[in-house]
Design a protein that fits this description.
alpha+beta, 2 domains, 61% helix, single chain, two-stranded antiparallel ribbon, 3 helices
Length: 117
């Protein structure tokens, strides 16, 4: 098994090591949450429509079974379309590693400079 070395680079600002921002080619947590919420809304609406169309006011085992079969196939198709749409949305695909730590340290340095003048 290969050992993966973590490469960390820092800049020194007023003697304090501040991590550099590293652009990662992966989804940000905010993008994942947005996708999860949007998918859940789509999936819930799809389930509601399928059960309303197939069952109406009376629900039987055969109808529920049919609805589940239709739901499984239709949700796979809808999810594929949903993913293809999200593949063309570039918001949140690249996010900065160490951004929060860097921001905190730079704010600390800014405040320190203000009071040492």
């Amino acid at each position: 098994m290969k050992e993966i070395k973590k490469i960390r680079s820092y800049n020194k600002v007023d003697g304090i090591k501040v991590p550099t921002e590293q652009v990662l080619d992966r989804e940000s947590p905010a993008r994942s949450i947005a996708k999860s919420i949007s998918w859940r809304i789509i999936a819930s609406f799809t389930t509601f429509i399928i059960f309303y169309v197939t069952a109406g006011s009376k629900i039987a085992i055969e109808v529920i079974t049919a609805a589940v079969g239709i739901e499984a196939i239709s949700k796979m198709l809808i999810y594929f379309i949903h993913e293809r749409i999200w593949a063309n949305i570039y918001w949140g695909k690249n996010w900065m590693k160490n951004k929060l730590i860097r921001r905190i340290k730079l704010n600390y340095i800014r405040i320190k400079r203000r009071y040492t003048r």
